[in-house]
Structure formats: C-alpha cells, structure tokens
Structures
1.
Amino acid sequence: MIPVTKPFLPPKNEYDQLIDQIWQRNWLTNNGPLVNELELKLKANLNLEHLLFTTNGTIALQMAIKALDLKGEIITTPFSYVATTSSIVWEGCTPVFADIVSERLTIDPTKIEALISEKTSAILATHVYGIPCHVEEIEAIAKKNGLKVVYDAAHAFGTSYKGQSLLSYGDISTLSTHATKLFHTIEGGAVIANDPALLKRLAYLRNFGHDGADRFNGVGINGKNSEFHAAMGLANLPYIDNIIEKRKEDSAQYDAWLLDKGLMRPAIPADTLYNYSYYPIIFKTEQDCVKVFDALAKHEIFARRYFYPSLAKLDYIVKRQTTPVCDNIAPRVLCLPLYFNLTQSEIDLICRLILRTLKY
Ligand SMILES: *Cc1c(COP(=O)(O)O)cnc(C)c1O
C-alpha cells in the first residue's frame, strides 16, 4: 500500500530521551520546558521573532481571527483545506470567496478589491502547497483599504520568499504541525506575528486569558500544546533539511516522468526557496484525473484530491461568489504520494500507471 503521505518518525531512542525528561520532571503540559525549547528552536530555524506553539493549526486560525478582533466579512480563497473556511464561520464571520490564479492556485489579488464592502475586515489567504501568495499585492490592497491580513500558512514550513520565511508575512500567519504536514508534532500548530503587542494578545488567548493565577485579560481559549507533542517536534526538527531535500529529489523524479507529457504543476514564483510539501499535478480534464485516481487505487496507491471540492461550494456558505478558475481547476488536481520513505521504484511505478492510464 502506498498512501499519499506517511508521517516521518525520528529514531525512537531520540524521542525516548526527551520523554525520559518528562518523567523526571513530571511536567506534562502548560508551557513546559520542551514547549519553550521547541519555540526557541523553531524561531531560530525559521528566523522568526515571535512564534507560539498551539494545539493545532485550526485553533491557530481561530486565535488569529479573535486576536485581530475580525468581524463581518473576510475575503478568502476557495482552494484550501476546509479549516480555512470553517474557522471563519466558527468565529462568526462571513467568508467571501475571491477566485484563484491558475498558475499558483493561490488567491487572485486582482479579484479582491471588487469584493471589499464596508463589512470587510480582513483577507485570509492560504499559501497552498507551500506556494507563496502574491504577498506584496495583498499587502498593498490591505493597506489601502484598512484591512488585516492573515495567512493560513499551514503548508508553508520551510518555504522562504525573498529571503524570509513565508511565515513572517501578514499581520498573523498560522502553521499546522499535524502528522500529515511536512514538519510535524503529531498534532500541533503555531501562530506567528511580528507585532509584540499582538503576540501578547495571542499568548493570553492561548491560555484562557490567564494573567497570573486568578486574574484574566479578556476571554481566552485552551490553545496550548503538551510536552509530548513538543518532544516529537524536537526529535523531528534535526531531520527537516534531509526531509525537504528528499522531497525535492522525489519531485524532480515525478517532473521528469510527467511534465513533458502535457501534465502541469503549479508554478513556484521567482525568489522562492520551496519546501516541496506536496506534489500536486493538474490533469487536462476531470475525467483524466478520476481515471488516474481509480487506476492507482486499484494498485493500492492512494492519491488525494487535494483540494476538492471548492470551499465556495460548502453547504453552509451563505454568500455565494462565482469562482470560475477554482471551479475549473479543483476537480482536475491530484496530489501524488510524497513522503520520506517513498522509494524511486515506487515513483516509477506510480508514473508508469499514470501514463498507461492516460495512454500517453
Ligand atoms: C492542515 C491544515 C489546516 C488545519 O491544521 P490542523 O493542525 O490539522 O488543525 C488548516 N489549513 C490548511 C490549509 C491545512 O492544510
């Protein structure tokens, strides 16, 4: 069986050593030493000023919306994981979908301004597959119209754009470190903000609003993460460069098989150091995409239709927009298996099956 992804697991003794520390200290959660160490190492690794480790990437998004006090309408992308949209709705805001650009599959900045109304408070865009959004254009639109910018950077660990971690853009960026993500802590995530006051707000939000044992600074939630999750992150972090390098090689092998056969991949913009977090392929038709999906499944190879259907089609969306580019592309995209232990011969097998199915 070849799944679309398999979590990287560090050598068990390296994880065990960290777990032994937990037993010695008897400190399991609530901002413990391993959580602190992970936050410091992530900030150093990503060259970020501020970062808070959270329960998961969805709570990180919800905390971002709360911290910026967003209300009314939030302009967002229809091409992402469902958590991007559901977090907006969960926080009582209304998602308004701007279409995507066909090359990068990220939000189209030229479609944003027409959607801005007096109810709009923010733009929430996803660096989908770790590919940078048009961050300069988005920032300019936000500035001009007095909007906040939140990036769902769940896929963006390890991508840098113009020499800076992609996680450093926007008022707040959120990360997921779920087991299926490039860098993982089993479950987990992070919020990243450049403004220290905003970070302080996020820190209160993460811990019930606690300001000492019996004082509270506003309403909060439990967005903390545990020593065990931090331990997995600390054990995984030394391998991240190898993990990204291996995925780069695998992606090049897929490219060599598939790209000159008329299959397409989203374009990585210039000035980007890419993280190879996914291998999406865009077929000419939905029929081709489904045929390939089924043919692979027959051989116990499980690709995923990330991200399908378009989030603009969710049944709890009240404000419908037309997003023809997303409607056209989302049904034709398939993410192929990509993980650390994937072998060259497995990639060859997958590509042969794809080309045979399409009769190329
Ligand atoms: C994984 C993911 C999330 C949610 O992260 P969790 O840690 O699973 O809560 C949000 N947005 C995107 C784009 C994701 O891929």
2.
Amino acid sequence: MIALKAVVLALSAVSALGHQLASRQPKRGCATEISAAQKDAVEADFAARRTGLPAKKAAPVTIPTYFHIIRAEETVDRGDIPESQVIAQMDALNAAFVNTPYTFELKETTRTTNETWFDVASPWGDDAVYQDDMKATLRRGGRESLNLYSLGFTDVSDGLLGYSTFASSYESNPQDDGVVFLYSTVPGGSRAIYNLGGTVSHEVGHWVGLYHTFNEGDGGEEWDTCDVSTDLVDDTPAQLYPTNGCPERSDTCPDVPGDDAIHNYMDYSDDVCYNNFTPGQVERMIAQMAIYRGL
Ligand SMILES: *[C@@H]1O[C@H](CO)[C@@H](O)[C@H](O)[C@H]1NC(C)=O
Ligand SMILES: [Zn+2]
C-alpha cells in the first residue's frame, strides 16, 4: 500500500518532482513550487513595492534560526541527527551565504518523536495536514526567523530532498513559513551525493526569495523555451532544464550568451558542485527580505 502510494506520487503530474523523476533521473528533488497565476501576482506586487524601496546598503543581518528535528525513533537512521551535524549544517549554510548580508544564528534545536510526521509530512494532497500540524506545533519567531524541519519523507517519494516557502508567502500564510528537508542531507548524513548540506542552502535560497536558475512553467513544470529566464535575475543565463550531477560545463541555451549556472545554489547540481549565488541574486534577495521580512 505504502509502496503503491509512493509510485503514484512519483508518477503524478501534480508535482514537478514527479515529472522530472519520470523524464531524467536521478536528479535533486526540490518540491518548492508556485503556480503561474500566483507568480504573476507576487511579482507584480514585488515590482511595485521595490520601486518605492529606499536604496538599501547591504548591511549585515543576523537571522534567528530554529532547527526542528523530527525523528521516528531515537536513532540517527530514524532521523535523530546528532548536534554535531546540526552545527555542521549551520556552518554549510553560512558558508553558502558568505557573499550575502545574511548570517544564520542557531537559537534552538528541538527534537520531536513523531513517526507520522517523519514518514509522510509533505506539501502534497492529504498529507499536507501533517506538515501543517508539525509547523503549528513547532514554528518559532516571526517573519524574520528561519525555521528548519528535518524529517524522513519515508512514504512520500524516494527523490524528495526538500521544499520551502517563499519570502513573499509569509504575509498570507505565516504559519507555513519555513524549510522542510530530508534529515540525511546534512553534512555527514547518509544521502550520498546530497550529503554536504547543499539541500538546506538551496531551500533557504527560496526562503530569501529566489527561484530556480533553470526555466520553469506553471507549478514547476519544465519549460521548453530559452526566450525567457524565469528566475527574473539578469546574471543567471536562460537555462532550459536542471543540471544533473556536476558536469564540466553545460549550455542548454546555446543561442543565449553564457553557460548554465551549474555551480549556482539554485540549480539542481550535486552538493559538491555548488559554490555561489550571483550578485543579481543577492540584489534580489536583499529587496525580497526588506519587503517581506522587514530585514
Ligand atoms: C504526531 O502527529 C500526529 C499527526 O499530525 C498528531 O496528531 C500528534 O499530536 C503528534 N504527536 C506529537 C507528540 O507531537
Ligand atoms: Zn528548489
């Protein structure tokens, strides 16, 4: 029954992840999505509010961070990651954001034993109620605080590594705000290829207001044109589809100047390949964080 559910989800067109698993695998699984209608509305609001925004210097900002560990049992392979890996994850996150104004400061680590949350919490369908319960119980702080939730996705999908809310969605749904990710992606975790902490850095990229560097259509579906760059950042070239692994170089839009940003945290490359946010992304995150998180 459980296996069947996982297969159905993996093949379902409702999620970009399912689509990607079906077409080109294996690949990083991120379930952060926005519908075309939502994106249009959010970006119109952002553009309007950005116009009135006083020029902001990139002053250092400290983000209070709450790390919620959901475990099925009190063993590492059932989600109970040691504090040393929590610290290593915070270090990896801060290293990723070193060229931005943001430093993430660990305020508290919480540990909750709940096998249901560990196995099935997800943003999809009937199971969304569990992630809503989890966040309602555990979320700390206001719009300025980052809440991280590590869990297992055991009965959700083999490929899912994480998902996040966007900065712009805080106002309409504050309780949902935060990053949910696979516990074994922390540095030293068991999820090989994706166990250097890159998943949290990628998801926090969404949390500060960034989209994927590759082109996406409605709800994260693949987009088959190089004529636009759907991340709305000027210095990440148009990219037709996500990078898989860590190639020497890749250029999925050869008629557009510039190679794919394969080392960018907002691509789907392996953790070892990640090493930057571009100045354009940093500019966008500063405006997003000022407008939507008051920072
Ligand atoms: C575990 O999760 C279930 C389902 O969301 C919830 O009803 C229950 O209260 C949770 N238990 C604890 C100890 O958090
Ligand atoms: Zn993503």
